[in-house]
Amino acid sequence: MSLILNKPSYPFNPIWTNEKLAKALRTELAELEAIAIVADRSYRPVRMDPGSTREVFSAKPRLKAIQRRIKEAILQRVRFPEYLTGSVKGRDYVTNAKLHTGARILICEDVSKFFPSVSAERVWDIWRHFFGFGDDVAHLLTKLTTKAGTLPQGAGTSSYLANLVLWRDEPYLQAKLAKHGLTYSRYVDDMAMSSKLDITPVEQERIIADVYGMLRRNGLSAKRKKHEIFSSSQRMIVTKVIVNTKPSWSKARRSAVRTQVHELEKRVVAEDVGAELHKFADRTSNLVGQLGRFHVREAGLLRARVRKAREVMNRATRIHFTISPTTGAHQSSRLVDVPPWEMKCRRAVKSS
Length: 352
Known about the structure:
This protein is 49% helix and 9% strand. It is an alpha+beta fold. A hairpin with a 2-residue loop joins strand 4 (182-187) and strand 5 (190-195). The protein starts with 17 loop residues before the first helix and ends with a helix.
């Protein structure tokens, strides 16, 4: 039985000259070449959370504008197979997790230092041989989409190119696994393989060896400490989503959302109304929205509390009260689930 390959494809005519590239990007060739000369110096580092080891960059305005046009004119026109779920319209980490719902065995791998490990040579290979663009075009596009010889995480074009890094080998791996009843997916640098049937330890080792071999052939390596094998008798997690029966978040993650909503409420009643609080409210609202994709009722209650907090912020209401310190985990969890202004009302009723 031959393998049925499901490859990414670019069903448009290749761009053979830099003049045609400039036309496709709606800009002057001289402008493209000038930006390419200084592209390595056209990035700013993005501040990450404490403890993060990732180096993330944001392109400066001139380069960012060109990368946006490259993305819109070329990269977003690629047809990506369903097993690639990062930065593809209509797909995300939830789509990725759903592919593995109800599995009996789940194997997860993480690519070590993925973006810094993707060399400019490999990016050039994508432009030259996947897209079939002319040699000069591939060189110019590589300069416009790499930084100091590697793929910069955070650039508008990088996640699309990341989907194509394994374009030569990944379709064969996916087809080989599918032939044996396994599901494969990749969300940027997170790879998952699952089976709805039991597979032996020997078969598991063979699958892992095939994945590691594919990575090595493409200048990448697996992050061994992130290697995980789950069975259906334990909690199975893909891209931070539990997939045993239906996609869901862990209790700890749901609790963290409730805690953030409570923190928003505390800051509102403490008169901490300003631009920073509005940003915090936006982040909290987004987090509650993500929760709502898995736990509708719980998110609905939190969404109402965020909406009330925003109303208070918008009125710039100045509320003063003191929450007495509590002891014990049970009392603390009750505080997290009750808005501060609700607690004030309850105390007023109780004292009367």
